[in-house]
Amino acid sequence: MAPPRLILASASPRRRDLIARLGLEPDGISPADIDENPLKGELPRPYATRMAREKAQAATSDDAHVLAGDTVVAVGRRILPKAEDADTARECLALMSGRRHRVLSAIALRAPDGTIRERLSETIVRFKPLHAEEIEAYIESGEWEGKAGGYAIQGRAEGLIAWIEGSHSGVVGLPLFETRALLKSAGFPIG
């Protein structure tokens, strides 16, 4: 019997690299184009799971499973944006400087029959107190572009993080422990 087919509902090269760590190569890529704005009063955890679910539902697939994910950075009840400009990234880094924040990484797996399974990883991250020069040096790197909370843990920002509790891969964009469990339960050949 042939293993199930997998469509990744993301154009993120980081997610493709992470899924490869599980020994899987997606059979296709189908980024979902959805409205990613939080609903009025929506909290970070429900927002992350809703985004992953909606991406899994919106992605095109024939008889394949669809894997979608969403990563949300939150300070308290506040959802930080994806940094599309340097000012936004600078504001996010200044807000997180010297304090803890949460990274919620939700995944959803849509089966060919339309049923959806979901998992959520929560990681606590604390940046060291950041000096203005450190923030500016990071801004100049450009790594923040398009990243939730304005940073990429897999790059230079890792040297600014005092500690992390939880899933490093979840902060990068795909929590491998939860993803492995979800795919294994759907019959994917993962050792």
TrEMBL record:
Bilayer-spanning residue ranges: none
Active site: 70
Cofactor: a divalent metal cation
Catalytic activity: UTP + H2O = UMP + diphosphate + H(+); dTTP + H2O = dTMP + diphosphate + H(+)
InterPro entries on file: ITPase-like_fam, Maf-like
Family: Belongs to the Maf family. YhdE subfamily.
Name this polypeptide is given: dTTP/UTP pyrophosphatase
Species in which this protein is naturally found: Croceicoccus pelagius
